[in-house]
Amino acid sequence: MLEKRIEDHLDLLVERYPVLQSVKKEMAKAYSMIADCYQNGGKLLIAGNGGSAADAEHIVGELMKSFVLERKVKDDFAEKLLSVDSDFGGKLAKNLQGALPAIALDGHMSLSTAYMNDCEPLLCFAQQVNGYGNAGDVFLGISTSGNSKNVLYAAIVARAKNMKVIGLTGEKESRLSALADVCVKAPQSETYMVQELHLPIYHCWCLMLEDKFFGEKNR
Fold first, then answer.
1. I want to staple 139 with a disulfide (CB 3.0 to 4.6 A). Which of 19, 29, 49, 158 is the partner?
2. What is the pLDDT of residue 217?
3. Which region holds residue 164: left if phi is over 0, alpha if psi is between -120 and 50, else beta?
């Protein structure tokens, strides 16, 4: 069961986007998986193609720095920075922000092009999950069809490594929805309409996660 302040974000989302009422339960389950991962020191790996690749990068941007709340580093870490270097450490202590570790797998151009040239192009995301992923981490695969082969290969590797798999797709059943521990199927089938709903879904996750891990300091 979600804490009330966390569930409030979902309630506001559904109030603003009533069509997402149908995926509220799946959204809550996916949030809990990511929150548990972070609670246990894990990380989130995200992959998608085209607009979904842009969404992967967008999610990383919201998780790795302040989204809507202040995320000052803890006092003991600030002191350690100052003890290492009293000049630069002060600037770091003042400006660094708490982060929730997330990696978008589309953004490593040298690795991606080398692997695609030397090995098998459609396994590029899978190779990165193999390299970055550990048991307890979460893989978020974004695919409007749910059948993007490079995302599916990555999801299979994630399952084999005892990672949790979350799918973010359109409304149709798909190979990704079958593979995933939970799949949030935005209730549209046209690609651009699916993508228009993906953004408020993952924004809501980012708000919930930030509130979970950084919210107490802002109350």
1. 158
2. 65
3. beta
Question: pLDDT (tens digit, 9 = 90+) per residue, 16-50?
Answer: 999 999 999 999 999 999 999 999 999 999 999 99
pTM of the model: 0.95
**Assigned token pair, 207:** 């708000």
Tokens of 212: 């979970």
Confirm if 207 and 35 have CB atoms less than 8 A apart: no
Q: Which domains does the chain have, with CATH numbers?
A: 4-64+99-218 (3.40.50.10490), 70-98 (no CATH)
Helix/strand/coil (H/E/C) assignment for every residue in 26-68: HHHHHHHHHHHHHHCCCCEEEECCCHHHHHHHHHHHHHCCCCC
